[in-house]
Amino acid sequence: MTLISLVYVSFATRPMSEQDLRALLEECRTNNQRLGVTGMLLYRNGFFIQALEGEEEVVEKLFSEIAKDPRHQDVLRVYKAPIVVRSFPNWTMGFNHIGDQHHLDMEGYSDFLENPKAEYFTQQPSRAQMLLESFRSETFF
Ligand SMILES: Cc1cc2nc3c(=O)[nH]c(=O)nc-3n(C[C@H](O)[C@H](O)[C@H](O)COP(=O)(O)O)c2cc1C
Hints:
There is one protein chain. The protein is α+β, with helices and mostly antiparallel strands. The protein contains 5 helices and 5 strands, in the order E-H-E-E-H-E-E-H-H-H. It has a 5-stranded mixed sheet, sandwiched between helices. Strand 2 (38-44) and strand 3 (47-55) form a beta hairpin. This is Blue light sensor protein.
């Protein structure tokens, strides 16, 4: 049994209202609790980035379900790596908006805020980890 972290990015098919996001999170948390999955979902102007942590088989199966979800498209895996400890042990799925005021000392980050693109993370997966981990201690709702 291997504990892994899997990170992907995607784009909402339609803009998500706060109500849409709350409904999505409720669904995530009920399932993830049962599956022993933890993680963090970030959203900005239609752009999603999500970390899923748990047993490899469970996370892979969940990810293949998530990838088929019509609420988003262009689902692209950024990385998958074995982990010893979870980065988000407290969240069955944490959630945050990446706001204009969120600062991160990372090359190209302000361009990313202007125009979120998958390549920003696929070219350098450690950026995804840095961004997600900068929210590890908070959840918006
Ligand atoms: C951006 C995004 C992230 C999601 N994350 C999760 C998740 O972490 N856990 C989960 O169970 N479902 C997640 N879903 C929902 C799944 O795609 C799917 O709707 C859900 O697993 C179906 O659950 P059900 O079979 O219990 O109805 C996500 C969907 C989207 C669009």
